[in-house]
Amino acid sequence: MQLPDPIRKIIDAPVFAHVATVGPDGHPHNTVMWIDRDGDLIVLNTAAGRTKWRNLQADPRVSISVSPLDDPYQNFSLKGRVVEMRTGDGDAVIDRLAKKYLGVEEYPYRNATDTRVTILVEIESVAGNL
Asked: Which of 88, 112, 89, 92 is nearest to 100 (CA)?
């Protein structure tokens, strides 16, 4: 679906997203993440082997909650599915997110043994007062 302009504006700012995946036992796993977008796709980044990565390998469903920086009581819930997980640009994407969130050129918490994974999410529904 096409993201509504208010959601695009929120995601383009350095807001923290609450990202929920479904674990193997059916319980949700929720983490706070940096977020970006590529057109109408949501862009996330993690390291291979982490819980959210394992969960998304098995079940591509994801729920994302975001609020504007200036109005944390206004909340939007985005539901969607992962359409791609890739490693080729994982380091570049985490650097881009570090620039957005920290104002630095390179992600300062890089672990040399991590394989960074870019996650692209196609949103299927949006809830909240637009």
From this structure: 92
**Residues in the chain where the model's pLDDT stays below 50:** none
**Structure token digits, residue 85:** 């997980």
pLDDT for 130 equals 74
**What superfamily in CATH does domain 5-124 come from?**
Electron Transport, Fmn-binding Protein; Chain A (2.30.110.10)
**90 residue type, one letter:** G
pTM: 0.95
**126: β partners:** 78
User: What three-state secondary structure class fits 64?
Assistant: strand
Q: Which residue has the tokens 């940096």?
A: 34
Q: Convert the pLDDT of each residue in 33-44 to its tens digit.
A: 999 999 999 999
Question: Largest Cα–Cα distance in the chain?
Answer: 42
Element spanning 55, H or E: helix 51-58
Query: What are the beta bridge partners of residue 21?
Result: 29
